[in-house]
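A reminder before we start the practical. When you read a complex entry, don't treat the lines as separate problems. The point of joint prediction is that each chain is placed relative to the others, so the output describes one connected object in space. Small molecules and nucleic acid strands, if listed, are placed in the same frame. In the example below there are four entries. Take a minute to note the order of the lines before looking further.
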Amino acid sequence: MSEATYFILTALLDGPLHGYGIILRTGEQSAGRVRIAVATLYRTLDRLEEGGLVVADREEIVEGRTRRYYRITDDGIGALRAEAARLQQAVELVTRRIAVTGA
Amino acid sequence: MSEATYFILTALLDGPLHGYGIILRTGEQSAGRVRIAVATLYRTLDRLEEGGLVVADREEIVEGRTRRYYRITDDGIGALRAEAARLQQAVELVTRRIAVTGA
DNA sequence: GACGCATATATCCACTGTGGAGATATAGTC
DNA sequence: GACTATATCTCCACAGTGGATATATGCGTC
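Here is the predicted structure of the whole assembly.
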């Protein structure tokens, strides 16, 4: 799972969000360290929807602009859970050997 | 940093290793879950050497086959440390919200 | 009125990284 | 003789990334 995929799914954990909102949420959650390019975002969302990890929830029109909300599915949560566990093991592989600030 | 890069640097934490040894070590360290394709390995090693994160340590000839050992540099350790901290934060973003087995 | 910026979606295209496959070579096993 | 393990290297097709561009609304500035 790519970093973009991981952060998109993570952004959806607190509830459905639209594409642009996911970009903003990811920026907040990572303190500006991770930014997802729009091309990456929409293509990744398409792939996630195809794979059943997210579903298009509803569409809203806010100030003349369409917002399409995406919701994470149970499969999406499962995939994210598995990936987090995988990452945790990768982190431990390093922290077992060298000190890592903040870890 | 890609997963291949991360695991290659991690494999070198316990001391210099040659390419094929890195593949085997990564398999052991990840309980078979991560395997690095040879094409990815050697191209990634080239990139890491270019970037000063690893250096070619020495060459040995064992049973008629040449082994080229790579050693991780201080910069390499620094990069790995930073990446581990980054991953740790990504993991926490998820574990704060949902239970992750083994994390 | 023109311009830039934030919001919001979408696609084009060049670039990078990945990995299956093949090449080359030695040594041991079936 | 064929296959597997060890050991390096490269070719090439494929997938993902992201800057740029397009389209459109609304707001503040010049």
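Discuss with your neighbour: The longest strand of chain B covers residues 54-62. What might explain this?
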